[in-house]
# Entry
Amino acid sequence: MNRQEAVRRATELVEQMSVEELASQLRFDADEIPHLDIPEYNWWNEGLHGVARAGTATVFPQAIGLGATFDEELLERIGVAVSTEARAKYNENEKHEDRDIYKGITLWSPNVNLFRDPRWGRGHETYGEDPTLIAILGVAYIKGLQGEGEYLRTAACAKHFAVHSGPEEKRHYFDAKVSMKELWETYLPQFEACVREGKVEAVMGAYNRTNGEPCCAHSYLMVEVLRKQWGFQGHYVSDCWAIRDFHEHHKVTDRPEESVRLALEMGCDVNCGCTYQKILNAYEEGLISKELLQKSAIRLFTTRFLLGMFDETEYDHIPYEVVECREHIELSIEAACKSVVLLKNDGILPLNKKKLKTIGVIGPNANSREALVGNYHGTASRYVTVLEGIQDYVGDDVRVLYSEGCHLFLDQVEKLAREDDRISEAMTVAEHSDLVILCLGLDESLEGEEGDTGNAYASGDKQGLMLPPSQQRLLETVAEMGVPFIVCMMAGSAMDLNLADDRANAVLQTWYPGARGGKAVADILFGEISPSGKLPVTIYRNLQGMPDFDDYSMKNRTYRFVEKAPLYPFGYGLNYADTLVMRAELTEDVVYAQTEEQSVGVEVTVANHGDVFTEDVLQVYVQVEDINEVPNPKLVVFKRVELAPGEEKMVTLEIPMRAFTVVDEEGKFVHTGNNAIQFHQHELIPLVKINRIGFHHTCFVHNRIFLPDFSLRRIRAYSICHDHRVSREQINRIIHGQFFPLSHDFRLATTQGINHHVINFIE
# Structure
């Protein structure tokens, strides 16, 4: 059904409703209207990484882990799986006339806010810190959720619009102040992509104010930008009880009836909360009109018609057997494998079980189901923790010893015990093991949404990057044991990994990998799968120089603005192969003043000189030489590539013309005009440049197009100097911000190694 037909049918239906009936349809828990054959419907359902809070469903990796895959095709497949399960469950619930919360087919996902600060508790609900990455993955997920059939399989919702990323404890009264440049450069591009490219059916407003106006009644964002500029035709949802904040916390209105008027006039169609229970009061006072109610109701019923709720659709007979089916479980494991980021490896990985007698598995997250699932999750029929994944893999061939080591955040595990009551056991396990897998991190009780079901008594934000003291003491203890150890960091955000990077033999960032995530981690540890995840966030050394959490300026935040070398940069991730960029060429000149629909092709030849199959991610960065450009090169396109041992492959990437624009102080995208540097194919000269922020993976190509290097093995400085004959003078020149042309072969052999040398030198 096309939108025009859905609008026509919705209009005809809505015109038959009384004011009382109209009012009942604008709440998230919409009443039935028997004489119009309209059943009750609850708009509130979640599908962040699987159907949530409605019983059994496939639990995929948390969104931040999906961001680490850098795989838009995967995100679309997961969206298809999630929406298929949602339909199957909806079909069965309809048979039983169960129309409760979390059982509808309007999924309030994805969260496309920008993870601007590592302290934000809800950051792991997002795809990372980069607008381009979020936009591409968000659009893919939306397309998967909504489908391409005659009807929408489910209705997706892009949230939280806009400029929303903490602090959680202040969100109900906070005013996020941003310049027009930062608004359009950082906070809006992903939402625009969701609307224009993803055709998302719904948008949810944020709790906070942005530049003085509440986001669920924002004249500029909701009317001028969303509706007029972007042409959004779907419905708008308030965040839950956000409209109540208008009068209770933001103080932009004096009472509920005025909040109702303000929200409806700005185009907030459905209220998650209870304030729209005052609609009739507002109507009787003359604050709102019947026509205003009809306008919102038409948009809501347009969505319901597009979902086929009043027709027979191709989705009505999706069987319940698809819920947590084998195909979806395998997809979740595939996603978990692709999400794991290998941050450090001194050669200990992959493990060979034939050379091991005993493995020690230690840590509060080693056998934790909570550390698998993140937040906004469903219930799996089976979970595989890291401990269980390792036990399943080695079977009876290797002894596996286990110790919790410490409580997740308390000083002791047993209430009556002394502090660190599991430390001695952890030491014993380490002493009796050939190596240790140390599983640390957080779960939704320590980072999440303020007042959410998994975080009911905490704000959800972190105070800093440090692990809870109990875990910090455990890490220090294991590091002093002298036993080889591997750190698995199970957390949804950047943590302090300085000690792990310095002392551990290997470090894995596993995020919250989903219900069967332990199998994926085990497969990577033992080399069944080569790791291929890339960091969707920056892992900082510390928070020095970063603005206050309340400050929404981007200074020294995220890889585009960071001023000092991070511990691990955005886009970083090692693998077990030997992958290299052999050649990179522009397929055409960059000509300014062309339309945004045009693009510039880059042909890249990549090769796997290793002896294992791997996937890798080619990332292209661009920096325009203009005063309005962001300080550091920005990601503009990426592509996953499969490479068999010895395989060489040519990949073409299309750089959108918008990548060559900048955002001025008025928030407008502008070309640099005649002052722009032209990018000509014949001028493409391979160069190496390490700038002062230490991009680990970035090779410098003429006129500031950046192509991340594919060499992902961590090579020590000694081996660089010895094997590839890089002189001390050349290294010093690189360290001091200079660059020098290299021969084709020389660049390929040394780029990655020099990068790591420079980063280590800065350290």
Observations:
- The domain at 3-322 is CATH 3.20.20.300 (TIM Barrel).
